[in-house]
Amino acid sequence: MGRYTLRRLLQLIPVILGTTFLIHFLVWNLPGDPFAGRCGERPCNPAYIERMTELYNLNDPLIIQYGKYLLNLLQGNFGEDFRGVPVAETMAEVWPNTVKLAVVALSIEIIIGIGAGVLTGLKRGGFLDNLVMISTLFLMSLPVFVIGYLLQLTLGLQLGIIRPTVSPEMPWSELIVPGFVLASLQVAFTARLTRASIAENMRADYVRTAVAKGLPRRRVVGVHLLRNSLIPAVTFLGTEVGALMAGAIVTEGIFNINGVGQTIYRGIITHDATAVVPMVTVLVLVYLLATLLVDLLYAVLDPRIRYE
Amino acid sequence: MTEMISTQSRPAGEAGRNYSGSLLEVDNLLVEFHTRQGVAKAVNGVTYSVDAGETLAVLGESGSGKSVTAQTIMGILDMPPGRITGGEIRFRGVDLLKLPEAERRKIRGAGISMIFQDALSALNPVFPVGWQIGEMFRVHRGTSRAEAKKKAIELMDKVRIPAAKQRVNDYPHQFSGGMRQRIMIAMAIALDPEILIADEPTTALDVTVQAQIMELLAELQRESNMGLILITHDLGVVADVADKIAVMYGGRIVEHASVHELYANPAHPYAKGLLESIPRVDQKGQELYAIKGTPPNLLRMPSGCAFHPRCPYRRDNCVTDVPPLYEVDGSRRSACHYWREVLDGTAG
């Protein structure tokens, strides 16, 4: 397993180079002038443009630009955005918020998704099963922004149960509803995946053996059945961790959370490439590491998988 | 710790301790399956018994009800669709079917245990084999993890798995078919059960390994004097190890005899057909005998004797009258109106 992990980590290098180059290339080549509208109603002062062009190496060929960017990155220097704020500073401010929101969302996915999946998988066709099947279908059919605005409107504005937007201190209690909105689609998938997996494995021979061994039912289900049935759900949730970080643009926007998604979105619409590229680079890294973690976890959960 | 059972007392507890009848008695058992197509009568009044140290072979083709009977004894029948509509299963004189589930569970694995046909799917793929064997001690006896592992190694040694100590943490897929079945056996005999049910234990194995597994079972039985119910469709396996045979057809026992009696001279046309369909060296070159027709459809059982559509001894009343289990002699029984003719070998 150690060698496998090392090999996978080495494989990350070309992937990171490739993705960062693509991001760099695309963002810098977005149509439109990065300096349009930057200086109010008037066109920018040529001296300012010249200074910025110099500062960000905009006259260099793209490959040189990329090389300089990489060199800076290796020295731990994320550069400055067009406003002159160090990107590292912005990251330190927004990453904790996004991670916090993702943790809440992931917990909801695990607790509600797997919980509902297990309960309905064990007893299909009952009231709870129908309830879960219909509500997950509902969640899967609605776009995230509809659910988000709906909950904000009803719970936040009309009923006044929650604050309509999250306060800057990001208290955990205020993150529950945004976390649910962010998790809504994955909760539905996790529940259905777990349900199908439990229902299938319930008929497995090893479950019959566990019963024949005279184990109490809660041990048969909680140990023998669950361990096997969680494998698909864990794989799914792991790959979704990356998506939770990146996919929070809409949720962060609705609930006014100063997170990674919002920062990247702002960077893109203002042509602030120097801010977007490093942010997305880190996002790629998170995604890749999460995927690697899932692959390793997969081998722990299912001993039949061995990477040698 | 209500789950714990002291190591001294037998798992069934004190109830029925001084019972004088057989160790395990299945009495007129009726099991049905409720399906979309209708009610399938899988077991129609099966009666058999096993004593300590005795081996009963239950013989029959797929769908004859032999496995369903065994699953009902173990209490691992899927209900629904299965439903027990009548009969008793007495273990030391106590009817298991009337016991509450909590009591029943303590007998499962400890008093009566079972090994299955396909050990690869019957063992849990995600836990080490030693852990799975040790689980018996941890759950039934409250043994510590370390102690349970030690016992698992002892058991793996006992069923002759080479290098048990090194392999105790291996997973089922890392063993060969024969070794996996040995692990199943180790798990089943862990708590010294009084009855071991082996449901086609050698069907998934190749012939040389089959013989080793049967030898192992016979040896373990001699050592601990357990009653063994051997479910099989392989007549060759039965001959060496069984004391008595129950031949099942269409959910009923059609012949019950000692091995010697049955092999020498079967008293039911179906048993006779089975014996004649074994390939024999002295008949090399001749066409192999096969019982004509197909096994009965459990949803639409033939009237009268279930075997009548395939029977060479059939007469008119076979179509209308269900044959009782006629007493042939001693403990020998045959469910054929014309068992005398079958015994004499005069085909009708």
TrEMBL record, chain A:
Which PROSITE patterns does UniProt cross-reference here? ABC_TM1
Q: What is its main location?
A: membrane
Query: Membrane topology per the record?
Result: Multi-pass membrane protein
Keywords from UniProt, A to Z, are: Cell membrane, Membrane, Transmembrane, Transmembrane helix, Transport
Q: What's an example Gene Ontology biological process for this entry?
A: transmembrane transport
UniProt key word Iron: no
Location comes to: Cell membrane
Q: What cellular component GO annotations does this protein have?
A: plasma membrane
Similarity remark: Belongs to the binding-protein-dependent transport system permease family.
Protein name, entry field: ABC transporter permease
Show the taxonomic lineage. Bacteria, Bacillati, Actinomycetota, Actinomycetes, Streptosporangiales
UniProtKB/TrEMBL annotation, chain B:
In which broad location class does this protein mainly occur, judging by the first location in its UniProt entry? membrane
How this chain sits in the membrane, per its record, is: Peripheral membrane protein
Q: Which UniProt keywords apply?
A: ATP-binding, Cell membrane, Membrane, Nucleotide-binding, Transport
The record's subcellular location field reads:
Cell membrane
Q: Which GO terms describe its biological process?
A: peptide transport
Q: Which domain of life is it from?
A: Bacteria
Q: What is any one of the record's Gene Ontology cellular component terms?
A: plasma membrane
Which Pfam families does its entry note? ABC_tran, oligo_HPY
- So what family is this one in? Belongs to the ABC transporter superfamily.
| Name this protein carries in UniProt | ABC transporter ATP-binding protein
